[in-house]
């Protein structure tokens, strides 16, 4: 399978135009492309529109209707995680708990310069250390892997590169009897660097005077300038009031608490890997591409217990390739435990953003124009991040004249990659702060202003319609829950204690996460004792995906939850790919696979049930001459009965034994293409701002989301309250820093980069709105990511309401707040 | 290298350990016990928390070579009194059924920190829970339900009857086609008029639990989550029950 560079397809029209039909098929199998479809739908949308016929199932229009909302038996109930027992005891095996006889530990020596050429590596001293088994580097890399690179080229990341573009780029991988020995070996490897000029600053990087680091026609190290989206005549549109906002967000990282780790071994010529990943089949295809193996020679096994990922572990990185090669050349299993430092620095991040917003509004509250510019510092690789911030700017409000710009810039620093909601929190931050600025400028209530400008029809530019969008519902429910009419006041109007001011703010979120994508697969197996197995390749990253697969399968098939099981574990040897658990899409992707497989199994149950009943009827004494068909039967709680005569029943075991072979239901489903599939939510918060110390205290927080249909309300509440905590960390404390002089990361540890503890965490009051979607499994729309969008503007808007000062540089730390207060 | 005798969950292990080896490394790799998880390896996140003589410590920063002097190390493995859901320690059961985790990597540590907290303080206030658990990070952000789990476990350990927010799926031992267990439907409401104080909540919860079809109640002075049996009640009836008790909801 050729390596088609997914990001270049999106950013480089000439590259996309150069692809052959076979190339497009290879692209469709690329795990990178799959991740982009799930996490960066707006980046791939123009490509899908133009080249749909080249992609599998492409161009085929699929229609869907809103599913009938009959009374459900299982959907809507609160079910605890199937892995729960293993998690609270010592029974559950996380990847980090794995070990094998003969296992070696791996450590990686990494570049200490942000931009350099590796001119010489001397491993002779290190190799002599007792317990060191093998050291792999560019000099002794097996020939067949020398041209392999991950991601998209320019700049290019080979398995071991001669030119490195970031601190932390791998130089040598060491396999030893213990991590302590490998650590010592790292210290004894001599590396000669030719240090090259590095660029760390976003603005600097865009200048034409900045030296290029890769082939490009753009200024400096600019990676891509997306063709602007223009609607109407924004440059000439008139408005009563024009507001401007310049915003900045710092680098955030996922900090999944299970540090990235893997165990790799070869069984003959087949690679076996267990790795902390969100997409077993994507890991398989990534490794198969890198190692030049067919996919059936790579087995990825997930234990079913995973310390999440939040988007940065859908695919493999260079380290996973090193581990596989080390396992091959040593003939031993390789345990690769990243250090927390490596996980922070060398994996991906939500990148730094800058936004320049200009909005024109009339005194009657109607939006006239928006000119919105997004800049993304995508770090040391080719990535697409800036135009991901467009989706709410384009779709949430009716803005008649609009210009959207997006620029992605490379620097020798933290690499950009999807992190729970990707670029949408930046879009929501920028737009929702600007909306509040506009509301206050014309003296209108911020919620009334938003309701007055809602777009509830569909994408204004492509004309694809929304399905049953719940924007108005989430806003009005959030307004009611926070008691907005009673608590809202003019800015700096309510001092609650000396120097401490009360404020309330809100924000609306719209993003493209939560819909389903292809492939949607799964199987249902009914055995001869009537017990049912749900088989799915869906990874559970902690949100309860495997539990939800079970609930969807049980509901669709017509059995109870204790008649059907699903394994926590996944083995790519005996499951089909159903996409990565990212993009909030599993309820509608893996879940769709479960639904369709269950419907197929149900049909077979009823068909065979009818056959058996007729067969029994013929053999009865006296014979029953009335024949039944599948349409005359129902399957409820595992019992098949004749609708017209409930006394005639069959057990599932009766039917399967009659058939004489297991019943296997299989999914064959293509996602519909005719809807603009968006998630919406609205948050509101009350804060107390201390103008002496500069601290912000959140006293109430309300979060409302439209989920289409609540499969498991217990899990949904968790996603929302957890996402609020996670995103608030980025608002109040989290930022990854780099030393401007040396390019060295300054704070890649959990003391200096501070996720919120139980002492700081806001406790969100959750509201669930259900507006069933035509494209949703049982009408559902996923929501793992959307709660990450609103917290920044909600809190920033509340702070403005409290003290009349805008703090638009995240995180909102005390020094920034105090400076803003001085200035206002 | 050093030879030590470790007392882990009541069992003695005679081992040789590297001087640099942490207790977590020994338990996880040498012994394969998988009774605690690593989050940072630097005592910054608490995921590896276990008890040494009843005190919560970070197993990643305790050296095994110094643990051979009779210290009693206890982990989640020592907590269950028997098999299955019923055999779990109240803290374990509460973290599971009240949703005190999402991905679960922090949970073994949170459970041990909670056990230590409740051993010292059987009825902790919110501030005391914060102090006791401030050294454990939950990146999934599930602190809201961690409070619920701690409070519910503490209540059960004090001998009170408790209900949980969610049900576990338990395959019926007698056969695969037994009748389903009722798991209920739940919904969170907001009080039209918030209660004066959190203390007013418990008497209301007691009255509600007496009503036929109400399976579970939890909440605060502002919000209340009620779980009911859909065969006996629906949302309208539940709203009426609340109104009749003088506590209408939006």
Reported for the largest beta sheet of chain B, the result is:
5 strands, mixed
Taken as a percent bin, the fraction of beta residues of chain A is 15-25%
How would you classify the helix and strand content of chain A by structural class?
alpha+beta
Q: What is the global morphology of chain A? A: globular
Number of helices of chain B: 8
Give the domain tally of chain B. Answer: 3
Profile the largest sheet of chain A. Answer: 8 strands, mixed
Number of domains of chain A: 4
Number of helices of chain A: 23
Estimated radius of gyration of chain B? 21 Å
Name the CATH architecture of the largest domain in chain A.
2-Layer Sandwich
Task: Name the poorly predicted regions of chain B.
Answer: 173-182
What integer is the average pLDDT of chain A? Answer: 96
State the low-pLDDT regions of chain A, or none.
Answer: none
Could you explain the architecture of this structure?
The complex is a heterodimer of chains A (824) and B (250). Chain A is built from 23 helices and 31 strands. By secondary structure, chain A is of the alpha+beta class. Chain A folds into four domains: 6-54, no CATH class; 97-196 and 257-346, Aldehyde oxidase/xanthine dehydrogenase, a/b hammerhead (Aldehyde Oxidoreductase, domain 3, Alpha-Beta Complex), CATH 3.90.1170.50; 352-515 and 674-823, Aldehyde oxidase/xanthine dehydrogenase, molybdopterin binding domain (Aldehyde Oxidoreductase, domain 4), CATH 3.30.365; 523-576 and 590-666, Aldehyde oxidase/xanthine dehydrogenase, molybdopterin binding domain (Aldehyde Oxidoreductase, domain 4, 2-Layer Sandwich). In chain A, the strands form seven sheets. Chain A has an eight-stranded mixed sheet with strand order 3-7-1-14-11-12-13-23, sandwiched between helices. The longest helix of chain A has 30 residues, at 590-619. The radius of gyration of chain A is 28 Å and the shape is globular. The termini of chain A are far apart. Chain B is an alpha+beta fold. Chain B folds into three domains: 2-78, Roll (Ubiquitin-like (UB roll)); 84-157, DNA polymerase, domain 1 (Orthogonal Bundle); 185-244, 2-Layer Sandwich (Gyrase A, domain 2). Helix content of chain B is 30%, strand content 17%. Chain B contains eight helices and eight strands; from the N terminus they run ββαβββαααααβαββα. In chain B, strands 2-1-5-3-4 form a five-stranded mixed sheet, covered by helices on one side. A three-stranded antiparallel sheet of chain B has the order 6-8-7, covered by helices on one side. The longest helix of chain B is centred in the middle third of the chain and has 15 residues, at 143-157. Residues 173-182 of chain B have low confidence and may be disordered. At the A-B interface, α6, α21 and β30 of A face α3, α4, α5, α6 and β6 of B.
